[in-house]
Specification:
By secondary structure, the chain is an alpha/beta fold. Helix content is about 25%, strand content about 20%. The strands form six sheets. It has an eight-stranded mixed sheet, with helices on both faces. It has a five-stranded mixed sheet with strand order 4-15-16-17-23. The chain is globular and about 55 Å long.
Length: about 500
């Protein structure tokens, strides 16, 4: 077996033609439907970036115990399991968080890896020299040191071939050239695009009638007065679409290679994302702070299974924690090698159109905890001032260590299911992301797909509270999570 896994960061399904979009130019995503099963009910798990990647490695939910952080010494990574079974694993990526305190242990789980610098605020080009930053940047664009860093990085990314996501896909194709006649390998191509900032050559922006000057191409996270900034938000959607089109162009090069070398006959392909993005929907921009609306968590997913695939699309529920179990199944490795898991293999869906799960959990640490059956979605927020904790042996955030006050109040606790029996530390959590104070939001996704009309129904609320309690108990969620959510 050979597997190509392609991860695009921040890919929103409503911008893809596969899911009904009629204005974004993405013919190669549409072309996937010739060979792949399109999943229509796939959900993210832990938001944002690194929490999602921990789930992609471990098959275990992250957000109930931990915020942004690295793989732990007690974690089992699917890529390390593959290595132990003689499967060669290689990562090509431009996801700069792998070189930061909060993500420094992921890429080392592969046999080899190749990285490309310069995305977003990657601390790459020296920024003690002033960068030229346009004075007319939109008021809703991101501000701060990462912006200054981005404009310094851009000095080395003036042409399309110099852009890090383009280099990443090119490096992936180079691996395929060397391994197309070999067996027992997994190639993980991970592109930070189309994550913001939406920096893309003008040739792609021309397709959407965007002028030379930048518009709202790096939206700040939070609430936005959509009526006031209607045209600006439309431009932001176009900037995002232009970057998707560049991703689509280079995805096409991978598909061309697979066509030319008949790789569909013996190579599995998985294409997915970590989460989506809000561009004006629900009066919001970005992620993390708003509730976990569909645009953020109902994500695109495509998979090709050589020879035994039986369906072109699926309505069956699936989620991020299912990805590593599916990979193990592709290589016929027992899922118990990942120890305790929350996921399941998706191969029964592809081979027999068989349902594999009834509910999916997703959320943000210390913030929103959510559950869906693919028809209705229940968004629960924490009670104000209720404590929550970080469970870890690696007390780091995205850039830097835990605060001294947290470290002083850490306690060593016994190992459990989450830590695979290894004792670990419990630190007070610090509220980073938003958590609007509402008792719950419940939506019927069939009748209200844009989630404009929350259902207020006491009996339905009781039903979903019961389902949430059962799901949290099943995966041994921390006791304080029940208290925080007001669940008994």
């Amino acid at each position: 077996m050979r597997v190509i896994q392609i991860t695009f960061d921040t890919l929103t399904r409503k911008f893809l033609p596969n899911y009904g979009c009629d204005w974004v130019i993405a013919p190669n995503f549409k072309r996937l439907e010739k060979h792949c099963t399109r999943f229509d009910n796939f959900y993210a798990g832990s938001l944002p970036c690194m929490p999602a990647r921990r789930e992609m490695h471990t098959g275990k939910h992250n957000f109930l115990h931990r915020s942004w952080g690295p793989l732990e010494p007690f974690d089992y990574s699917v890529f390390e399991v593959l290595k132990q079974h003689g499967i060669y694993t290689h990562l090509v990526t431009d996801h700069s968080h792998y070189w930061e305190d909060g993500g420094c242990t992921y890429h080392n789980r592969y046999n080899t890896w190749e990285g490309f610098r310069g995305q977003e605020g990657d601390r790459w080009v020296s920024h003690d020299i002033e960068a030229f930053i346009p004075q007319n940047r939109h008021i809703l664009n991101k501000q701060g040191i990462s912006v200054k860093q981005h404009y310094r990085n851009r000095l080395r990314q003036q042409k399309e071939e110099d852009m890090s996501s383009v280099k990443t896909i090119h490096a992936g194709i180079e691996f395929l050239k060397e391994h197309k006649d070999l067996d027992n390998w997994l190639l993980h191509i991970e592109c930070f695009d189309p994550h913001e900032p939406f920096y893309v050559p003008q040739t792609y922006r021309d397709l959407y009638d965007l002028k030379e000057e930048e518009t709202l191409n790096w939206p700040r996270y939070g609430k936005v007065a959509c009526d006031t900034y209607k045209d600006d938000i439309k431009n932001s959607q176009k900037e995002y679409a232009a970057l998707i089109t560049m991703c689509d162009t280079h995805l096409g090069h991978i598909l061309d290679f697979m066509d030319k070398h008949q790789m569909w006959e013996d190579t599995a392909l998985i294409i997915h994302t970590d989460h989506g993005f809000l561009l004006g929907e629900h009066e919001c921009l970005g992620k993390n702070f708003p509730p976990c609306y569909d645009e953020l968590v109902h994500t695109p997913f495509f998979m090709h299974l050589p020879k035994t695939q039986s369906i072109s699309y699926s309505d069956h529920l699936a989620t991020t924690v299912d990805i590593p179990l599916t990979i193990l199944d592709l290589f016929q490795i027992n899922q118990n090698e990942l120890k305790e898991v929350d996921g399941t293999s998706l191969l029964p869906i592809l081979q027999n159109n068989q349902q594999v799960r009834e509910i999916a959990l997703f959320g943000i640490h210390g913030s929103y905890t959510c559950i869906t059956d693919g028809k209705e979605v229940y968004i629960k927020t924490g009670l104000k001032d209720k404590p929550f904790y970080e469970y870890t042996l690696m007390p780091t955030n995205i850039r830097g260590f835990f605060k001294q006050e947290q470290l002083k109040n850490g306690t060593l606790i016994s190992g459990d299911r989450f830590s695979n029996g290894i004792p670990y530390l419990k630190y007070p959590g610090v509220q980073i992301y938003g958590s609007e104070q509402f008792p719950y939001k419940l939506y019927n996704l069939k009748e209200d797909p844009t989630q404009e009309f929350p259902i207020i129904d006491e009996e339905l609320e009781k039903k979903w509270n019961t389902l949430l309690i059962e799901a949290l108990n099943r995966i041994h969620a921390p006791k304080e999570e029940f208290d925080r959510l007001g669940l008994k």
